[in-house]
Amino acid sequence: MTTFPRRRGVKAAALLASLGLLLSACSGDGGGGGSDLTAPGPEVLDGLDEAVQVEFWHSMDATNGQVLDELIAGFNAENEGRVEVTGSFQGDYDTALANHRAAIQQGDTAELIMIYDLGTQFMIDSGQTVPAQSFLDQDDYDTSTVEEALVNYFTVEGELRSFPFNNSTPLMYINRDAFEEAGLDPDSPPTDLAEIREAAEELTVTDDDGTVVQYGFGAAVYGWFIEQFMARAAVPYCDSANGRDGRATEVLFDDPKIIELVEWWDQMIEDDLAVQIGRNTDDGQAAFTSGRAAMTLESTGSLGGFIEQSDFEVGAGYFPLVGAGDPGGSIIGGASLWVNGEGHSPEEIRGSWEFVQYLLTPEAQSVWHAGTGYLAVNTEGYDGPEAQERSEEFPQFSVAANQLAESEINENTAGCMMGVMSEARLAAEEGWEAALTSDATAEEAMSEAARGVSGTIEEYNLSVED
User: Fold this and answer.
1) What is the 3-state secondary structure (H, E, C) of the chain?
2) pLDDT in the model for residue 312
């Protein structure tokens, strides 16, 4: 089974809340870090006496790590005597970011590093990396085949800051067998909350004692889903145009759309149409694969495991809307690649970029998508033989690519840019769970959770001001 690093947020919350101590020491420009670092041209790799060494820190293990190792080996074979990449597994996303922070303090960073989406603002503020845009401008690199929604996500103030690579998006998953038994069309899964409830009323099954043996719906209380629902409703997650027009000062996940979502979720549990999962995503996955919940929400990264572990046919549909009139869109997850510039030679910086270019080729992306289930950053990768074979075997994978391709491209689907985004995600989960398990109303719980993040945001912002 392919495994994907989870972005749970507990360690990251504590980490990102304290990163201001580091930022004050490594960046003095108030958040425009890295703007003075520029990409060298290809000529720096001419006439080398030996191969440039590039250390690549990443968070890919198990199957994903094996596929990445194959790509590294392929690049090294093509660039023998010129550039040699060494992959170094750094643990999950939170741990990798913590290790990078320590490396900055020690003045000994890797040439290339994979950092998850929640660390984007910190990476900019740290001032250690060469902006991705500088490489694009230096080489007049054509990004027309790179998935537009991914470029949008990692673009800040009009410039691409890092290179999308291992990215995913959440979907709705359905038990096709259960749909057919309930007289529902598995080829037309629900598209919004009202339709999910309508389907759940048909899908929920009780035994002779009245005990529910199959719930219509069940998913983890996962903060990423709130970000997704807000983006699809064209609602910003934080102020200042999702932190894109200036520093975010508050989170907005107490918006009426999310209050409606949490109230709906609570009522579904109250009416025995949805199983109460809690915040553990593994429990949410298990509820679906065991047949306990006929519909669920999860990342595209779970599709392969769902197919392998389920005794029923798995279907996939777009992540639902809160209301039928919502415009749609999609927030991506996963990580991107950053080239460290501070403390590195032009040859090392250029060598890192050469490797990134290799990873973004259609050929490499076909291998990557087929082997891991992550999206193909270069959309031409879907046409490769490996990707085509996977698509023929598992047509459900095309749903994720189509959802992203049809996504609205705007500040809402770009995601919130905030130095303590992980802290915010954790708070959103806590508020959501409180509304489901205590006497607090959805509005009270989500508003209190949003207020609780304000101090942490202010603390972080002060730490990066001139």
Assistant:
1) CCCCCCCCCHHHHHHHHCCHHHHHHHCCCCCCCCCCCCCCCHHHHCCCCCCEEEEEEECCCHHHHHHHHHHHHHHHHHCCCCEEEEEEECCCHHHHHHHHHHHHHHCCCCCEEEEEHHHHHHHHHHCCEECHHHHHHHHCCCCCCECHHHHHHCEECCEECCEEEEEECEEEEEEHHHHHHCCCCCCCCCCEHHHHHHHHHHHCEECCCCCEEEECECCCCCHHHHHHHHHHCCCCCEHHHHHCCCCCCCECCCCHHHHHHHHHHHHHHHCCCECCCCCCHHHHHHHHHCCCECEEEEEHHHHHHHHHHCCCCEEEEECCECCCCCCCCCCCEEEEEEEECCCCCHHHHHHHHHHHHHHCCHHHHHHHHHHHCCCCCEHHHHHCHHHHHHHHHCCCHHHHHHHHHCCCCCHHHHCCCCCCHHHHHHHHHHHHHHHHHCCCCHHHHHHHHHHHHHHHHHHHHHHCCC
2) 98
The answer to whether 278 and 458 are in contact (CB under 8 A) is no
How many CB atoms are located within 10 Å of the residue 265 CB?
20
d(CA 375, CA 297): 17
Q: pLDDT tens digits, residue range 15-48?
A: 444 454 455 445 433 334 444 799 999 999 999 9
- State pLDDT tens for residues 295-318: 999 998 888 889 989 999 999 999
Give me 43's structure tokens. Answer: 């000529």
pLDDT tens for 175-220 read 999 999 999 999 999 999 999 999 999 999 999 999 999 999 999 9
Q: Are strands 333-340 and 112-116 parallel, antiparallel or unpaired?
A: antiparallel
Tokens of 36: 């003075």
Residue 353: name the closest of 93, 163, 125 by CA: 163
Burial of residue 373, with CB atoms counted within 10 A of its CB: 0-12 exposed, 13-18 middle, 19 or more buried: buried
Average confidence (pLDDT) over 116-126: 94
* pLDDT of 323 over the 70 cut: yes
Model's pTM, two decimal places?
0.88
pLDDT by residue (tens digit) across 431-456?
999 999 999 999 999 999 999 999 99
